[in-house]
Amino acid sequence: MSEPATINPGWRVIAYSVLGFVLLLGVLVGVQRLFYYNYRIPESMVWEKVEQESAIYDLEPSFVFAIVFAESSFRPRARNTGGNGMMQVSEATWGDMCNYPYDQVWDWQVNIEVGTAYLGWCKDYLENKKSFSYPLLAACYNKGPDFVRRNKFDISEIGKTTNVVYKELFKGNLSPIGY
């Protein structure tokens, strides 16, 4: 009688090594994504860019800074169902405000440029309707100018939100995060 064939135990070493490598790779990718999507731009850099862009549209820099914080907590890869980036700009608004391709929404400086341009547009809209105030400007940015118009430019009808920064902006506090 012949001896039964023995299975080479080396295949287990190779299989476990491959499995270990795949698991390690998965963990590393997960950690990288965690830091990639949660990375925050330093406040001082955001403030510098906000000051520069706010001057173009005659906006209070602390107000714009608060909008950026409320929308993304200074995370350039922030995502929402309606918008992306530091100021959560939607693709439609992006197309209305600039000629940059939408994939530049992730460039935090360009995002602040475009978001602030939209704030400037909303400010002009409210001034043309003889209804400008910073609380209404925050509502326009957060809920859209049509929503503000449908609510007769009445902040008491508009100002319902769960975001603590927007709650303060709707009350007229232009510096709710103290910069």
Q: Into which percent range does the helicity of residues fall?
A: 55-70%
Average of the residue pLDDT scores: 89
The tally of beta strands, per DSSP, is 0
Whole-number tally of structural domains: 1
CATH topology: Lysozyme
Q: Name the shape in a single word.
A: elongated
Assembly state: single chain
Q: Tell me the β content.
A: under 5%
Please provide the ordered H/E string of secondary-structure elements: HHHHHHHHH
Low-confidence stretches: none
Number of helices: 9
CATH architecture: Orthogonal Bundle
Give the class-level CATH name.
Mainly Alpha
What integer value in Å does the Rg equal? 24 Å
Task: Look at the helices and sheets and give the structural class.
Answer: mainly alpha
Largest sheet: none
Q: Distance between termini?
A: 88 Å
